[in-house]
Amino acid sequence: MSIYTAMCENVLLPLADYATRNCTMHYYRLYSDMQWLGREELQRRQDELVRETVRTAYADIPFYRELYDRHGVNIAGVLKAEDLSLLPMVTKDMLREAYPHSCTRDTGWPWREYCTSGSSGSPFAVRVDNETMSMARALMFLRANYSGWNIGDPFLQTGMTLERGAVKKLKDILLRVEYASAFDLSDRVLDRYLDLIDSKKLDYVMGYAGSLYCVATRALEVGFNRPLTGIVSWGDNLYAHYRERVESAFKCRVTDTYGCGEGIQIAAQCGRSDGAYHIFMPHVALEVVDDEGNPVPPGQVGNIVLTRLHPGAMPLIRYRVGDLGVKSAGETCPCGRGFELLAKVEGRDTDVVVTPRGNRLIVHFFTGIFEYYKSIDTFKVIQEERARITVLIVPRPDFKPEHWTSLKSEILEKGDPELVIDMKLVDEIPLERSNKRRFVVSKVGR
């Protein structure tokens, strides 16, 4: 451990937590220790958290109390994680209708409203308090550790937060982050990022899978040959050809992670997991179920359903996140961590739109804009020629023409003013034949 890492973990970040009423480092230390517990002990602790979460939600949240009473659920019978199948599943639409009055509570912690469309293409608001977000941030640190990174090691991060406020800027300084916008991935900007990696001697890069792919593609094109130590991927799907190109360009392994914008960090790969993902059992109970909510056998594809094991300001219990996955049979990883394993994450198909000026618009470019338009239920972007995209929109009742005008203006400003954008209002956007939702589709050859 370097001196700066020790100072960050024991002095600087705890002080930042105190000043901002967070507790990230408390949970980072807790989760760092708990990952090495045996599966049986982890399961016991997870079961305790399941009981506490379900009972708190029933007592404090009208939405869950009415839902469980309507389905005749006796929550006294929910004693462990596997009993969660006794409860009805919850969807974004159900929570959207109940938000905020029937599905939130006062925890005494400061809270923020986060708007997210994740990979579903459907805008959705959640309320997350500081304690809940501290848990998620602690696991962001832990998942990055799986790449070899330690707190305080400088790194480049691609992201969608263009305005770095005072708190984020302070975080960037403390963690020695070089923050790079993934809104603009033109050759000129990608060259600047490669120069930054080289001049700052950065050993780690983290960010959205689509943006990492674009950086790696440019690195190979210009002959960039500085090997990195580790890369952490999140957000959109890390396709096999994405991984192959990134690892080829930077001569190191990609650590893929899985989370959702609702304040849940779900799982991450390690160097010895053979592609499987360690499920963060102290934070989330993950089920893989059929369309009726019944568990499917290990090794079979099903719907991923999540229960965040902390009620927080807005409990999420048996929340159908909209992804597909395959759970492992019960084996443990050779790395020694006791967490359950998720064999595969599927169902987050995305693509990259290349604009007339050469910018590359990844899936999170669009979700980073659409998620703030609550009058839009679902969207899909289709590119059939280089200069034009068509945006399919399923409107909500309060959708107005000026919303489209504002949204279109934002895409042009942040993406490419030469892009021609058409809109089509539709009643629904069907899933693909594979039962996946592809909401950014480019048919333009690269």
From TrEMBL:
Keyword Transmembrane helix annotated: no
Residue ranges of domain AMP-dependent synthetase/ligase in the record: 226-306
Protein's UniProt keywords contain Nucleotidyltransferase: yes
Domain of life: Bacteria
Keywords linked to the UniProt accession: Nucleotidyltransferase, Transferase
Pfam families noted in UniProt: AMP-binding
A molecular function (GO) term: nucleotidyltransferase activity
Protein name: Adenylyltransferase, putative
Origin species: Geobacter sulfurreducens (strain ATCC 51573 / DSM 12127 / PCA)
Phylogenetic classification of the source organism: Bacteria, Pseudomonadati, Thermodesulfobacteriota, Desulfuromonadia, Geobacterales
